[in-house]
Design goal:
By secondary structure, the chain is of the alpha/beta class. The protein has a single domain (22-237), classed as Decaprenyl diphosphate synthase-like (Undecaprenyl pyrophosphate synthetase, 3-Layer(aba) Sandwich). It is 40% helix and 13% strand. It has 8 helices and 6 strands; from the N terminus they run βααβαβαβααββαα. The chain has helices spanning 28-34, 39-59, 79-102, 118-131, 147-161, 171-174, 223-235, 244-251, and strands at residues 20-24, 64-71, 105-110, 137-145, 188-191, 210-213. Strands 3-4-2-1-5-6 form a 6-stranded parallel sheet, sandwiched between helices. It binds 3-methylbut-3-enyl trihydrogen diphosphate (2 copies) and magnesium ion.
């Protein structure tokens, strides 16, 4: 497995286009209620938005897209809505896997899948296996995912694997056990729907992500809205703890007084 640079241990490369975009797809319910429709109609529409955004990410050369589909706290919703979401997940996987595969998308699902019904777990396993060799875009769906769950499951697995090192674990010991160890950390985090919070999404992995919040509801998000987020990302100065002056100095060719003065050959 590839080892990715940790933003707290080394300075990752940062380009004009984010390598990894993570999105909290929020606002489906409000989108539907505004139209006097049941909340779940918004979730249905949200799947269409996701299809558009996946295409846009592929076209822009983004390598990793991670979306929050169902949080570990979403079980607190009315049982009808939870079961609608589960069925929607099943039908979306059934409908989309061929298209994802044809477009070179690798599918990953992260989260505690144990409470899901066997039919859904099988579909996830089949979809992941079928697309495992694809490399254009890695699409990660976070389902029954929570940032705290992730850190805890990683700690528990690390303790089991290396009990002798307890008390002396380092970041690089834990990192391989996190649910998204196969991906670099997100560069750009987007949350639609107007709320400005993480809601227990990727707590560890967002350490140095750039945050972009938009009032636009998820069913209204599209390629142009993604471009707006990327344009904002491009404006950011990603310092990773350094000063602005250090970054500028790094960009300019440094001429020191000790350097010989270049001779003009034609003089
Ligand atoms: C996000 O939309 C989708 C899920 C959490 C599954 P919401 O359902 O949270 O929509 P709002 O925030 O109520 O509008
Ligand atoms: C976060 O949205 C989870 C998903 C988008 C799946 P929520 O709508 O559940 O977040 P809160 O409860 O408003 O923080
Ligand atoms: Mg919400």
């Amino acid at each position: 497995m590839a080892i990715f640079t940790s933003s707290t241990q080394a300075i990752p490369e940062s380009g004009d286009v984010p390598q990894h975009v993570a999105i909290i797809m929020d606002g489906n319910g409000r989108w539907a209620r505004k139209r006097f429709m049941p909340r779940v109609a918004g979730h249905k529409r949200g799947v269409e938005t996701l299809r558009t955004v996946i295409k846009a990410c592929v076209a822009r050369g983004i390598r990793y897209l991670t979306v929050f589909a169902f949080s570990s706290e979403n079980w607190r919703r009315p049982p009808e809505e939870v079961s609608f979401l589960m069925n929607l997940f099943v039908s979306a996987l059934n409908d989309e896997i061929d298209r994802l595969h044809a477009n070179g998308v690798r599918l990953k699902v992260v989260g505690d899948l144990s409470p899901f019904e066997p039919r859904l777990r099988t579909l996830i396993a089949e979809g992941e296996a079928r697309t495992a060799e694809n490399s254009r875009l890695t699409l990660t769906i976070a389902a029954n995912y929570g940032g705290r769950w992730d850190i805890l499951q990683a700690v528990n697995r690390l303790v089991q694997a290396r009990p002798e090192k307890a008390g002396d674990y380092r970041e690089e010991d834990l990192a391989p056990y996190l649910a998204m160890a196969y991906a670099p950390e997100p560069d750009l985090f987007i949350r639609t729907g107007g709320e400005q919070r993480i809601s227990n999404f990727l707590l560890w992995q967002l350490a140095y992500a750039e945050f972009f919040f938009t009032d636009r509801l998820w069913p209204e998000f599209d390629a142009a809205a993604l471009d707006e987020a990327i344009a904002s990302f491009r404006q950011r100065e990603r310092r990773f703890g350094r000063t602005s002056e250090q970054l500028t100095a790094g960009r300019e060719p440094r001429v020191s007084l000790a350097d010989p003065v270049p001779q003009d050959q034609n003089a």
